[in-house]
Write a structure and sequence with these properties.
single chain, mainly beta, 2 domains, 9-stranded antiparallel β-sheet, 19 strands
Length: 264
């Protein structure tokens, strides 16, 4: 009997310890809160790509502006607000966001101006000033940092010309090959063939805005009928774009300039 009692006691202790080890404390989920814990900062609840990102130091912070959301993060918290359309300055490339919620007031100013990170020295094309105040605070906290627009990843591909100023291109327009461009969205560069000469250049990208800048070409003599000059003029005149159905469309405020087809 003593042996059986001892065995039963050992089994009970072992089973009880396992149950205790497997037990987890489940905390109630906070609802409608804009302040998240540090462990939740990796998941902002938004699967889209931000169109603008910024960071700052002393203290460390980051900012992501999405099409429907603004996310501000520190090492301990994440603050979310709905997106608001920026106010544009008339005489400079300056955008100001003014966002108010029941729990938070945030002002964001983005200025196109070279900005160096105070710790890494990395240079970004935009200077950012944040002013943040939670409802229960009296004064705004001002933070400064640097940022950049995130170029649309859908542009990253090889595109061949399909139509030029509303007309489908033919061999009569480009006897050798149709113009083709390759866009690198991570480096904001473009290279390719303009119908007669090779080209290289840069992209200028902001939300809804795409420009081809600093285009350099080789100097090969072209046939008089070749429409390379018209193609290059249209390329450098574009300010907006759409990507849809494997087509990249470039336009200005008055007309569609170019339609490219994505290559296989």
């Amino acid at each position: 009997m003593k042996i059986h009692a001892i065995l039963w006691l050992l089994i009970s202790i072992t089973f009880g310890c396992k149950q205790k080890a497997d037990t987890k404390t489940v905390l109630p989920e906070a609802k409608d809160s804009i302040v998240l814990s540090h462990t939740e900062t990796k998941n902002t609840g938004n699967n889209q790509q931000p169109y603008f990102q910024a960071t700052g130091t002393e203290p460390f912070w980051s900012l992501g502006i999405y099409s429907n959301l603004v996310v501000f993060q520190t090492p301990t918290d994440t603050l979310k607000t709905p997106h608001a359309e920026p106010i544009l300055a008339m005489d400079a490339n300056v955008k100001r966001y003014n966002i108010n919620t029941e729990a938070l007031h945030i002002k964001i100013q983005i200025v196109q101006k070279e900005c160096a990170n105070q710790m890494s020295g990395k240079v970004s094309p935009y200077e950012v000033v944040l002013q943040i105040k939670k409802t229960f605070n009296k004064d705004f906290e001002t933070l400064k940092g640097c940022g950049a627009y995130v170029t649309d990843y859908r542009l990253h591909d090889i595109w061949v010309l399909e139509t030029l100023k509303g007309k489908k291109v033919t061999k009569d327009d480009f006897s050798q090959e149709f113009p083709t461009i390759e866009i690198n969205s991570s480096k904001n560069t473009v290279m390719g063939f303009a119908g007669c000469n090779q080209i290289n250049g840069k992209l200028f990208f902001e939300k809804g805005l795409l420009r081809f800048k600093n285009i350099v070409t080789t100097e090969k003599m072209c046939e008089p009928s070749n429409k390379e000059p018209e193609f290059l003029k249209a390329l450098q005149s574009s300010v907006g774009y759409t990507v849809e159905n494997n087509r990249l469309t470039l336009y200005n405020p008055t007309e569609t300039l170019i339609v490219f087809r994505k290559t296989d």
